[in-house]
Amino acid sequence: MNKFYITTPIYYVNDKPHIGHAYTTILADVLARYHKAEGEEVFFLTGLDEHGQKVFQAAEKRGLSPQDHCDDLAPRFLQLWNNLGIQYNDFIRTTQLRHIAVVRKVLRQVYDAGDIYADEYEGWYSVSEERFITETEKESGAFRDVKKLKERNWFFRMSKYQQRLMDYIGSHPEFLQPEHRKNEVLGFLRQPLGDLCISRPKSRMSWGIELPFDKEYVTYVWFDALLNYITSPGYNADDASFKKWWPASIHLIGKDILTTHAVYWTTMLFAMGLPLPKTIFAHGWWLTGETKMSKSLGNSINPLDLIDKYGIDSVRYYLMSEMVLGQDANFTMESFVKRYNSDLANDFGNLLNRVGGLIGKYFDGRVPEEGTATKAEKEIQTYAIQLEDRIKQLVETLYIHEAIDATLTLVRRVNKYMEVQAPWAVAKTDLVRAGSILYTATEALRMVAVFLAPVMPSKTKEVLEILGAVGTNVLWGGLKSGTQLKPHAALFPRLELV
Ligand code: MSP
């Protein structure tokens, strides 16, 4: 059986989750569900990044110890994931003992291999980014809270792996995606790569995992956090499971954390002698207006409020269909309402109402016989049957919005087909033919529900329940003639922009 191991970034516990966090997690969930539907064995990991300065400061502000702060906020993330219908397999927290043990083990291993050394370093330090930055980075003006810092620290010999990383990227076209992000990393690697400072003196910041070879220091939060991807499948704890799941099929990340994954993480894996993940995919940002959503800007959208108001599935649908993977997208209530009304209320919801109403009126609510297909029925059938392969290919290459669009095209074609065939008129003279049209439209609708199930698990389940077709698959003919349709309210009532 094919295996699929997918991860999200582990989120900093410095704030309540916002739509940006929800987006990556929903995307991972949708991909996981598509792969499951294709019969693959799936492992889906998400979690929390609980160490480091950001979390420490957030806890301080609330007058809590960092651990109490994390313990208090972790359930909010879990609640959000449950509300969003996220079917994760593991939820890792970097303060868990299983993770601390892995971090210490890896540090020891890399230290013993000679790839970690101590040095005095003086340079520009960005407090907000929590790392030393180069002169060029400082001059770019992109970093806030920059100060000169001189400190003895521990360093990872990242520079040693620069050429190997460049060669690897060159010979593995699927490794860094999308293409423009790969070029960004290659551009970055054209400059000499420095070594990575992987420690923080406790005297300055004590919230982290103590280095196994120096009690005065804790581990730099990224060196700690990245290792979550191997802790979860069982590195150094469960060899069989680790062997089964590592390397990951895909690390989904936002473009803001590309360097840490494409450079820090990969060189760390080289040093550990482990294979690299198959793909690292960096998606764009959700913006409000032209700016990135963030707490400091006070413009973040609380996903829970949206769900309360409009339902989980419409939020999932919007996020998945609106963002072209790899590019930025604008989150506005106008575009949310517009997409909901056009795709879900008008196209999808309306088709269900139409076929349900007509089958109710002319066939006592029982699915009619399929009858003999004419050219028009065959066209619908052919599109629906070919859609399976098309979606599979689009999902594998992460064109989710196109997979959704291809599915909605089927809905639109069927709506058009209904208008042209006008079964309400045909029913007056030829009930058998009217039944054939309605069967075709309803069967296509059933297939649409199956195709969209990973994106809208609950609404599509409702549709399948109404059609008496729960558990059916993407083969044409899953709808059984004679089945009594269940009465239902409008699936996606139209929204007005208030
Ligand atoms: N803790 C690190 C990641 C460690 S992974 C080993 C971190 N956490 S974070 O809380 O800041 O979340 C970062 C991720 O959240 C981004 O990479 C992205 O996936 C997601 N997003 C946060 N804001 C976002 C938007 N406005 N739009 C889209 N996604 C964004 O960095």
How would you describe the overall organization of this protein?
The chain is α/β, with parallel strands linked by helices and 498 residues long. The protein contains 19 helices and 16 strands. The strands form 4 sheets. A 6-stranded parallel β-sheet has the order 3-2-1-12-13-7, with helices on both faces. A 4-stranded antiparallel β-sheet has the order 5-4-6-8. β12 (250-254), α11 and β13 form a beta-alpha-beta unit. α2 crosses α3 and α12 packs across α13. The radius of gyration is 26 Å and the shape is elongated. The structure holds 5'-O-[(L-methionyl)-sulphamoyl]adenosine.
Beta strand count: 16
Structural class of the helix and strand makeup?
Answer: alpha/beta
Bound molecules: 5'-O-[(L-methionyl)-sulphamoyl]adenosine
Fraction in helix: 40-55%
Query: Cα distance, first to last residue?
Result: 49 Å
Radius of gyration: 26 Å
The parts where pLDDT drops under 50 for at least 5 residues are: none
- The order of strands across the largest sheet is 3-2-1-12-13-7
- What does the main sheet amount to? 6 strands, parallel
- Measured by DSSP, the beta-strand proportion falls in 15-25%
Total DSSP helices:
19
Arithmetic mean pLDDT: 94
